[in-house]
Amino acid sequence: TDLSAFIAGLPKAELHMHIEGSFEPELMYALAQRNNVAFAYDSVDALRAAYKFGNLQDFLDLYYQGMGVLLTEQDFYDLAMAYFRRAASQTVRHAEIMFDPQGHTDRGVKFQTMIDGLWRAKADAEQQFGMTIGMILCFLRHLDEASALRTLEEALPWRDRFIAVGLDSSEKGHPPSKFKNVFARARALGLKAVAHAGEEGPPDYVWEALDLLKVHRIDHGNRSLEDDALVARLVRDKMPLTVCPLSNLRLCVVDDMTQHPLRRMLRAGLVATVNSDDPAYFGGYVNENYNAVQQALDLSRDEIVALAENGFRAAFIDAAAQQRHI
Ligand code: HPA
Ligand code: ZN
After folding, report:
1. Candidates 59, 170, 253: which one to mutate for ligand 1, based on the most atoms within 8 Å of Cβ?
2. Per-residue pLDDT for 42 more than 90?
3. Is the CB of 242 within 6 Å of ligand 1?
4. Cβ distance 308 to 12 under 8 Å?
């Protein structure tokens, strides 16, 4: 059955989307020109043609290169506003966007420049599009914990501008345990916590995210299905998984969309949600993700509704706000 029209009008929450991963080649080019920054590809088409990834690291190499053209407050505003406009057009009513401060401060952009641009876009989008938005400060796990701790301290003047901390970038070889102290500090500050785990890394990394980082959601979590005891734990705790079907396909986490574990997750009783991860790089925003997995797995209308409701249940919003959306 074709549910694309139903999906297009369904109120949705998006909980796993890296704002730097919504950087469309056209905007990247425009900002490179505006900022007089040299760029390694000589056309938008050449850049898009390079988006062929064998694994997570292949993607990350391009992702860090792409974000290198972001320099001014206006750049961050334009980037975020483009995503919010797109999300609103897809009936996303609530978005929790991730950002990677170290990807900017490590190349000389001031924390304030980045956060002010994102914050102004959030305010304008909430007003213009009638959506609600939260921001999640992510630590790059390929860097050391000291850098993450410095980043959190640097963010404190803007503590009220983000709702949670997260953990992203190269997973293998960088287990959650490496970031135990910075997550403890974030929790002491009253922040929520999420972490990428079980995308490429083993089920043990999901256990660590739960037990050591005490996260409120697992980003991806696909490989949890390899461990029955872990699945039981996730079900018992109603621990949400923010699943990203097109990302999984493009980063070769699944060979084929018909092999995607989303239905198995739902059948196992897991609180799975659908998200776009890095929509400019992986071939679609949230509706394209719902459509791809709905068609490949022939998900029913009830399953689609359940996924969308899980998004609001898993969001960092109060019960009254959840009820307004479900
Ligand atoms: N995994 C890890 N790090 C990331 C991702 C991802 O899917 N997207 C952006 N940073
Ligand atoms: Zn991600």
Report:
1. 59
2. no
3. no
4. yes
Q: How far apart are the C-alpha atoms of 202 and 295, rounded to whole Å? A: 28
Within-domain flag for 80: yes
What ipTM is given for this predicted complex?
0.96
What separation in angstroms does the CA of 121 have from each of 20, 98, 131, 163, 323? 14, 14, 12, 16, 26
The CATH code of the domain that includes 163 is 3.20.20.140
Task: Among 249, 277, 282, name the best residue to mutate to test ligand 1's pocket (greatest count of ligand atoms within 8 A of Cβ).
Answer: 277
Judge if the beta carbon of residue 223 lies within 6 A of ligand 1. Answer: no
CA–CA dist 252, 232 (Å, integer): 26
Q: What confidence score (pLDDT) does residue 209 get?
A: 99
1 pLDDT band, cuts 50/70/90, is confident
Among 251, 205, 248, 245, smallest CA distance to 56 is for: 251
For 210-236, how does the pLDDT look when each residue is reduced to its tens digit (9 = 90+)?
A: 999 999 999 999 999 999 999 999 999
Report the Cα–Cα distance between both ends of the chain, in Å, rounded. 23
Q: Is 139 helix (H, G, I), strand (E, B) or coil?
A: strand
Task: Give SS3 for 20.
Answer: helix
21 Cβ closer than 6 Å to some ligand 1 atom: yes
Decide if 321 is inside a domain.
no
Q: What is the number of domains present in the chain?
A: 1
Phi/psi of residue 39, each to 5°? -130, 140
Mean pLDDT, range 280-298, rounded to an integer: 98
Looking at residue 277, what DSSP letter applies? Answer: B
Residue list, CB under 5 A from ion ligand 2: 277
* Spatial distance between the Cα atoms of 195 and 134, rounded to a whole number of angstroms: 16
Instruction: Report yes or no on 28 lying in a domain.
Output: yes
